[in-house]
């Protein structure tokens, strides 16, 4: 068991190094890996300037002033069907869709005029792929960029094989792995389960798990980190996990969901202020208090 945990720790460090390489090359700007690589590919192919991360409605702009919304998807078995929701067609001129294989090798790039999209939901089928596919031979990447992207993908696949991650939501999956290990929880099989991520098989208590990667870096302002999508959650407890640069757990807290103030726009600092919060893993983040130690659910109220 100790040997397996050592292997997992090593794989997480390797994954951190691979992601750092993509940041250094300008391929990624955040931990939203698939989306970031897709935006990089689209910007390189169409010669686009990527928008600031806070920009709403579009992801990039060309020299002629046209705005682009960019979506990315990793597929298998050449299944190009894609259901995209939440589109605001009035905010962009073109929808770009980048399809990858599991090694993040581009399989297709679509350029769809927004006038072809008449709703917030858009379904891509074989006809759409045929009509709007671009010539992939025009995509120019350096050997260094190609090598680093593939190495990153291989590192991810190794994490997947060990069961540390289940999806492309890498940061969230790693946090769930640590939380379930600490409290002996069972993850919900349905990734789209409304309101909860895990359940205690012992007493039936339910848990929502949120994870943020927090460390000193010029590319992120840690103390502004938010905890999104807490509205409407039905879980009994919220578990917050922080990860350090090497994707190791640097802090973990548990709190009654009912005690959280401002669910719509919560900040990581709710760790310092929420009534009834208890600490599961001591904090390594200076501005997040360790607080009272979790002993049992009897001392939570």
From TrEMBL:
It comes from the Bacteria. Residues 34-105, 167-261 form the DUF6998 domain. This is DUF6998 domain-containing protein.
């Amino acid at each position: 068991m100790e040997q397996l945990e050592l292997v997992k720790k090593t794989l997480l460090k390797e994954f951190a190094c691979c992601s750092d390489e993509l940041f250094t090359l300008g391929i990624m700007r955040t931990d939203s890996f698939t989306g970031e690589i897709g935006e990089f590919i689209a910007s390189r192919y169409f010669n686009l300037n990527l928008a600031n991360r806070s920009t709403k409605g579009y992801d990039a702009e060309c020299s002629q002033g046209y705005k682009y919304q960019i979506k990315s998807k990793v597929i298998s078995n050449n299944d190009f069907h894609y259901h995209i929701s939440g589109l605001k067609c009035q905010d962009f001129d073109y929808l770009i869709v980048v399809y990858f294989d599991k090694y993040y090798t581009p399989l297709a790039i679509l350029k769809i005029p927004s006038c072809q999209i008449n709703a917030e939901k858009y379904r891509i089928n074989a006809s759409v792929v045929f009509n709007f596919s671009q010539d992939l031979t025009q995509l120019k990447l350096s050997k260094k960029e190609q090598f680093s992207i593939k190495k990153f993908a291989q590192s991810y696949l190794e994490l997947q094989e060990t069961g540390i991650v289940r999806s492309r939501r890498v940061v969230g999956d790693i946090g769930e792995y640590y939380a379930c290990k600490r409290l002996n929880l069972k993850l919900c099989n349905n990734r789209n389960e409304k309101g909860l991520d895990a359940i205690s098989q012992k007493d039936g208590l339910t848990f929502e798990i949120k994870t943020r990667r927090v460390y000193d870096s010029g590319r992120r302002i840690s103390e502004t980190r938010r905890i999104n999508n807490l509205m409407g959650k039905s879980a009994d407890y919220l578990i917050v996990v922080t990860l350090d640069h090497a994707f190791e757990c640097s802090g973990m807290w548990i709190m009654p969901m009912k005690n959280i103030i401002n669910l719509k726009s919560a900040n990581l600092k709710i760790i310092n202020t929420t009534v009834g919060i208890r600490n599961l893993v001591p904090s390594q983040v200076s501005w997040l208090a360790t607080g009272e130690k979790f002993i049992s659910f009897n001392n939570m109220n």
